[in-house]
């Protein structure tokens, strides 16, 4: 019995030591959607190909902004300070170690929170040829990491979240800064009313049991016309249909439709980007839509929209 107790004590000590090592990691640095791209080996062509994928324009914004802000470095300059970056992509080219191009990643290697993605290839030519095919996987890894960080940073407006649960039967983290709100018929709108970049979340629903982007955008225009009017009669929010892209995604086993594009205020000069997540509520035979939109004239909007979009990923059905 004594040996068992000693063994259990050792297990406890080892467990605590492992947890302690993780907790001792320094905090990562940098701004959201910054990526440090390390050319660990190769002739540089592969790194250029990776950089072009990471720096491609974000869809659904009124002006050109890159998907990530990329800084390129090499092994000599990859020091202890550089290792604290929140998102790191390391390019390794070595024909003796790799026979095909592969992506793998680790979390919290030198700092926390952090993602380190390794791009391993047999040659720069192979990496250049494979990046168009593998680029989406790379960017999704980095975006998901940023979204997770964004969710963790959201302060909760419990009262607003309770309103959503009461009206729609869904739980969602409404950011604490969104203290203004408006309720309508099957509609609720929350805003932070920030003078230097206003963030907003709307939740609404409509009858249906399938996800169709054409119908969803038609409903959006109808809902926004009634619930988000302008300063004067005849002014209301509308969708700039030609700017919208849509697609189906799965998040934690839940299928949803994501639409991105631009909105404008009919009869006024206001406008900006929006993103919506639509899910089918089979029990009520309704489509529930959570939408984020921002108004930030004269400002870059990528990070502002993505920050509020992170809240949309917290939406889930309330368990009864």
Can you give a write-up of this model?
There is one protein chain. The protein is α+β, with helices and mostly antiparallel strands and 320 residues long. Helices cover 31% and strands 33% of the residues. It has six helices and 14 strands. The chain has a seven-stranded antiparallel beta sheet with strand order 7-8-9-13-12-11-10, sandwiched between helices. It has a five-stranded mixed beta sheet with strand order 2-1-3-5-4, covered by helices on one side. A two-stranded antiparallel sheet has the order 6-14. Strand 4 (102-107) and strand 5 form a beta hairpin. Helix 2 packs parallel to helix 3 and helix 3 crosses helix 6 (302-312). It is elongated and about 65 Å long.
Give the total of beta strands.
Answer: 14
Percent of residues in helices comes to 25-40%
Named CATH architecture of the largest domain: 3-Layer(aba) Sandwich
Gross morphology is: elongated
Segments where pLDDT lies below 50 for 5+ residues? Answer: 1-21
Radius of gyration: 23 Å
- CATH C-level class of the largest domain is Alpha Beta
Q: How large is the count of helical segments?
A: 6
Q: What name does the CATH topology of the largest domain carry?
A: Protein Transport Mog1p, Chain A
Biggest sheet character:
7 strands, antiparallel
For the largest beta sheet, what order do the strands appear in spatially?
7-8-9-13-12-11-10
> How confident overall, as mean pLDDT?
90
Give the SSE order as H and E letters: HEHEEEEHHEEEEHEEEEHE
Domain tally: 2
């Amino acid at each position: 019995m004594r040996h068992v107790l000693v063994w259990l004590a050792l297990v406890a000590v080892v467990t605590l030591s492992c947890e302690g090592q993780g907790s001792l990691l320094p905090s990562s640095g940098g701004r959201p959607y910054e990526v440090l791209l390390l050319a660990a080996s190769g002739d540089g062509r592969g790194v250029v190909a990776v950089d072009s994928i990471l720096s491609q324009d974000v869809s659904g914004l009124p002006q050109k902004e890159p998907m990530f802000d990329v800084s390129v470095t090499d092994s000599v300059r990859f020091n202890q300070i550089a290792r604290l970056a929140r998102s790191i992509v390391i390019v390794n080219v070595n024909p003796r170690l790799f026979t095909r191009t592969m992506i793998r990643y680790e979390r919290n290697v030198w700092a926390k929170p952090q993602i380190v993605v390794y791009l391993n290839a047999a040659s720069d030519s192979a990496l250049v040829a494979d990046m168009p095919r593998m680029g989406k996987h790379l960017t999704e890894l980095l975006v998901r990491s940023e979204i997770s960080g964004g969710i963790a940073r959201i302060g909760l407006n419990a009262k607003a979240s309770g309103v959503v649960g009461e009206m729609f039967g869904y739980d969602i983290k409404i950011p604490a800064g969104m203290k203004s709100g408006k309720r309508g018929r099957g509609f609720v709108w929350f805003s932070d009313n920030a003078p230097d970049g206003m963030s907003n979340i709307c939740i609404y629903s409509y009858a249906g049991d399938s996800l169709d982007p054409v119908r969803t955008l038609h409903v959006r225009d109808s809902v926004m016309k009634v619930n988000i009017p302008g300063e004067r009669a005849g002014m209301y929010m509308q969708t700039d249909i030609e700017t919208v892209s849509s697609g189906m995604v799965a998040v934690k086993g839940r299928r949803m439709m994501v639409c991105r594009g631009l909105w404008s205020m009919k009869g006024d000069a206001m406008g900006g980007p929006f993103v919506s997540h639509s899910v089918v509520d089979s029990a009520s035979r309704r489509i529930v839509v959570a939408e984020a939109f921002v108004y930030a004239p004269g400002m870059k909007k990528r990070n502002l929209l993505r920050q509020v979009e992170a809240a949309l990923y917290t939406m889930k059905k309330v368990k009864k």
